[in-house]
Amino acid sequence: MDMQTSFLDRLFESGLLIETGVDGLYGRGGRFEDVIAAFERLIDRYGAGDGAEAIRFPPGMNRAYFEKSGYMKSFPQLAGTVHSFCGNELDHIGLLKCMDADEDWTAEQKATDIVLTPAACYPLYPTIAKRGNLPEKGGLYDLQSYCFRHEPSNDPARQQLFRMREYVCMGSQEQVTDFRQTWMDRGQKIMAEVGLPVEIDVANDPFFGRAGKMLANNQRDQNLKFELLIPITSVAKPTACMSFNYHQDAFGTKWGLNLADGSVAHTACVGFGLERIALALFHHHGLDVDQWPAPVRKALWG
């Protein structure tokens, strides 16, 4: 039995995760949720003085915004759409017959105006653009959302529906790169507080196809993305639990995000993978939170 499966089985047995019959889709037990809530309070303590505007979007977003974002050009393998039955009564009869015969019943399912949110920040950019030019100091936003990535796996750290906590900065190049560096430093301090071993490395997003390889190489060459890595199911291949991303003016140009003087805004974001961080804590400190080291418990629960 490999390490991934063994850890996942223990999570199921302890009630921390709840099996649904679909790889990467899990329920969460109360103790698991308590750890995530405590870790979010720790994030809050580090970010509280920055004055970020808190916004919470649902796990679905406007399909038109999603299409304009270009996500399907870069990551079609990860996207999830929401479909609903759009047929008439006769179509419904056919659907029921298919279900009774254990056949495919999805023929009359049509795409709705909602897609599953791929990253917590995606609904933010068009929302802020509609407000007009940014204030002189730029914009800073605190987000949290369930996100979807279609990558089924028995690795508990690679889930299909998971929560992402993000801070997003919009401003000048200097403002957003300073923001990113600040959170790279904070991220290491936060993980030290909860006793987790980390490394930070340059990274790239999983762009699709032959053209995607060039985009990934460009992203790495320009140091646009860094990840904070923690061993969870593999020491050789530690898991990305935080990411630090500089988008240059890509989102500013796409969405019409402008600074107070009318010039195009640059953007950057820091993302916390909340389930992954909780899993890292359980992996390194054990499945019984009452037995965790006292400094870790103090950092999380005071």
Automatic annotation (TrEMBL):
Transmembrane segments: none
Record-given protein name: Amino acid--[acyl-carrier-protein] ligase
Ligase in keyword set: yes
InterPro entries for the chain: aa-tRNA-synth_II/BPL/LPL (IPR045864)
Annotated keywords: Ligase
Native source organism of the sequence: Rhizobium terricola
Listed EC numbers: 6.2.1.n2
Molecular-function GO terms, alphabetical: ligase activity
